[in-house]
């Protein structure tokens, strides 16, 4: 095969399951487990099925994977940001001490290009490097974000992570992982491995108990992490304070195990520099474009959409002066969650005036029924708001710009899906490069 970026992407896609059928697969074929309500659930084909065999065909044994020094992070909200904070802290530390010399970060989904998912020293692999070394890059630490779940997630082929971590856990991917919050917590804690210390953000009591039970079953030391009051003051978003606090604990535990003898591990300067360098596209991101300000957050479940709403009303109210026109662009299409429930949560939390709500989709197969449901519900909740349906994100952006004509300032919240945020970022590409 020719080693071009396009060939590499085609190679990967050709070996990906494009659908998740319901085969002759039963829960009894999964590793023996005791879920909280004694009714284990997992619908469809677990993504971990066949993953180890696939990796071994590529020449990647368990020992070779373990040599990457993996940090494994799961959760419902904030797991990607936590991974990015860990990478930033360890990269700054490595520049000061010589270890790690090279950091690796795997997250999903990507926003614009596939190579965003694999980053070396936080830089997405250049397309030529991706093509030449898509399976061959060696790093001193690899930070892995689960896709969803944990126990049967594709990333859980990792047998011996160095450290594991759990961000906030809430209701999401209920069709596969539910029906209860306890069930979801059980799946998330499936990344715990004997010999690897585990850390978690504070959780609801019933979730915390499941995590404690899972840790005890696996012989894992589990520590719950609160807000670190020594973090720099420029972290003014509550959820990012928690994610950075968790990342600091994970990073220090990793360094104690892999780079012992250097104390303290992360210094105050490391933390400050790591926070300063932290950047996570599509999450709490602001893109200025003349009189238009685009506020983008890929929140896609009830837990994260509330945080996005609080953030938007905080930043949109800053600066004083005349009130801006405020526009919402929302898209979500998933059979893994209650999308109307997510929109309802947004409406309940968004405590400021929205003049226009634009509902769109990123699926070519959508027949408009869901968009009309969104529009009707929004009009019921906010009858004074103009509500619009647009078939594509491109049309939604065009509508927002048209509505903003004649206004002095326009604030546009784009949320509900990382796919939506990625589509809008592609349209704002010239703005981001200028």
Automatic annotation (TrEMBL):
Catalyzed reaction equations: (6S)-5,6,7,8-tetrahydrofolyl-(gamma-L-Glu)(n) + L-glutamate + ATP = (6S)-5,6,7,8-tetrahydrofolyl-(gamma-L-Glu)(n+1) + ADP + phosphate + H(+)
Top EC class, one word: ligase
GO MF term set: ATP binding; metal ion binding; tetrahydrofolylpolyglutamate synthase activity
Species of the source: Lasiosphaeria ovina
Domain of life: Eukaryota
Pathway(s) where this gene product acts: Cofactor biosynthesis; tetrahydrofolylpolyglutamate biosynthesis
Keyword presence, Cell cycle: no
GO terms, biological process: one-carbon metabolic process
Family: Belongs to the folylpolyglutamate synthase family.
Protein keywords: ATP-binding, Ligase, Magnesium, Metal-binding, Nucleotide-binding, One-carbon metabolism
One CC-aspect GO term: cytosol
Record's protein name: tetrahydrofolate synthase
EC code: 6.3.2.17
């Amino acid at each position: 095969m020719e080693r071009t970026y396009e060939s590499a992407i085609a190679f990967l896609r050709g070996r990906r399951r494009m659908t998740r059928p319901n085969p002759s697969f039963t829960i009894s074929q999964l590793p023996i487990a005791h879920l909280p309500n004694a009714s284990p659930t997992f619908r469809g084909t677990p993504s971990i099925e066949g993953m180890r065999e696939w990796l071994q065909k590529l020449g990647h044994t368990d020992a070779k994977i373990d040599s990457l020094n993996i940090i494994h992070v799961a959760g419902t909200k904030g797991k990607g940001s936590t991974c990015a904070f860990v990478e930033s802290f360890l990269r700054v530390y490595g520049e000061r001490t010589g270890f790690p010399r090279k950091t690796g970060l795997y997250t999903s989904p990507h926003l614009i290009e596939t190579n965003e998912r694999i980053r070396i020293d936080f830089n997405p692999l250049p397309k030529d490097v991706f093509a030449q070394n898509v399976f061959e890059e060696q790093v001193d630490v690899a930070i892995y974000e689960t896709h969803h779940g944990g126990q049967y997630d594709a990333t859980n082929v990792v047998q011996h992570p160095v450290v594991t971590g759990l961000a906030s856990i809430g209701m999401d991917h209920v069709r596969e992982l539910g029906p209860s919050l306890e069930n979801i917590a059980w799946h998330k804690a499936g990344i715990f491995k004997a010999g690897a210390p585990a850390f978690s953000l504070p959780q609801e009591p019933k979730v915390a108990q499941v995590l404690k039970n899972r840790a005890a079953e696996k012989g894992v030391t589990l520590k719950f992490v609160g807000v670190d009051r020594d973090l720099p003051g420029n972290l003014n978003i509550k959820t990012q304070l928690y994610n950075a606090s968790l990342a600091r604990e994970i990073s220090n535990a990793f360094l104690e195990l892999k780079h012992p003898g250097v104390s303290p591990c992360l210094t105050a300067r490391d933390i400050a520099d790591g926070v300063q360098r932290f950047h996570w596209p599509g999450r709490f991101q602001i893109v200025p474009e003349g009189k238009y300000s685009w506020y983008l957050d890929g929140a896609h479940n009830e837990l994260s959409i509330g945080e996005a709403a609080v953030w938007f009303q905080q930043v949109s109210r800053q600066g004083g002066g005349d009130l801006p026109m405020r526009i919402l662009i929302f898209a979500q299409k998933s059979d893994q969650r209650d999308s109307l429930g997510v929109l309802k949560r947004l409406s309940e939390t968004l405590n400021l005036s929205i003049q226009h709500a634009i509902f769109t989709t990123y699926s070519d197969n959508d027949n408009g029924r869901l968009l009309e449901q969104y529009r009707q519900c929004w009009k019921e909740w906010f009858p004074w708001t103009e509500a619009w349906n647009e078939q594509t994100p491109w049309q939604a952006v065009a509508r927002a710009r048209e509505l903003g004509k004649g206004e002095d300032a326009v604030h546009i919240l784009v949320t509900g899906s990382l796919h939506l945020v990625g589509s809008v970022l592609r349209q704002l590409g010239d703005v981001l490069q200028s």
